[in-house]
Write a structure and sequence with these properties.
about 220 residues; mainly alpha; disordered C terminus
């Protein structure tokens, strides 16, 4: 059964995928909210028994509190948030897309070391891109996260299962799946098109607060 939460997550994902970097202050804050909400949802079960509150209420409070903290931190430190978002996406790609290619024929400690190395390399590359190529990092990161949510590669149910099992496996997905890749590719092309055609400037002039921090051209340096 499709719930309003499912619909909201899909809509938020598609917005991130197709217009995320065009209005960076909103996209980064929304991404921070979603990451914070997910962290709060995963952390809530650990507090059951410590706090005399119903589990459902506690989970809801964890989502709202985590989302509020994540959104505020992202808004307050936008440039730093881009580094974190880029590093997070880079680490995921390194671990689950690049790492298995090199670790396919390795076993035991060697295989684990290769996966860890690929993950750390992905984090480093993603963060570096976030520092040097701010706009590109935002386009790719918001398209990636948005595609995962918009195609239901990541769902509220998956986060619920991860919280219950205290494991990350339920929220892992195949980044080579056709629906995900299709939305991701279209999102990247759409967002670069918005910059190319000048719609970003128009959006920044209409939306309140967007001028505070809108992703600049990569050759202009990282925005303050």
């Amino acid at each position: 059964m499709v719930t309003p939460l499912d619909i909201g997550v899909v809509v938020a994902g598609l917005l991130l995928a197709f217009v995320g970097a065009a209005v960076s202050v909103y996209a980064v804050t929304l991404t921070g909210f979603l990451i914070g909400a997910g962290a709060g949802y995963l952390a809530a079960p650990n507090l059951v028994g410590l706090i005399a509150v119903d589990g459902l209420v506690l989970s809801g409070a964890g989502v709202l509190l985590g989302g509020a903290i994540g959104g505020f931190l992202a808004y307050a430190g936008l440039s730093f948030a881009v580094l974190v978002i880029g590093g997070t996406v880079g680490g995921f790609v390194g671990r689950f897309a690049v790492g298995p290619i090199y670790a396919a024929d390795a076993a035991g400690f060697e295989g684990t070391a290769l996966l860890v190395g690929a993950t750390l390399a992905g984090v480093a590359v993603g963060a570096l891109f976030g520092f040097v190529l701010t706009r590109t990092t935002l386009v790719v990161s918001t398209a990636f996260i948005g595609a995962a949510l918009g195609t239901r590669s990541l769902t509220p149910e998956a986060f619920s299962t991860a919280a219950e099992e205290l494991a990350l496996d339920p929220i892992l997905f195949d980044p080579t799946a056709i629906p995900f890749l299709a939305v991701f590719a279209l999102g990247v092309l759409s967002q670069f098109g918005l910059f190319k055609l000048g719609y970003v400037t128009k959006l920044a002039g209409i939306l309140p607060g967007a001028r505070r921090w809108t992703a600049s051209d990569d050759d202009e340096g990282t925005p303050a």
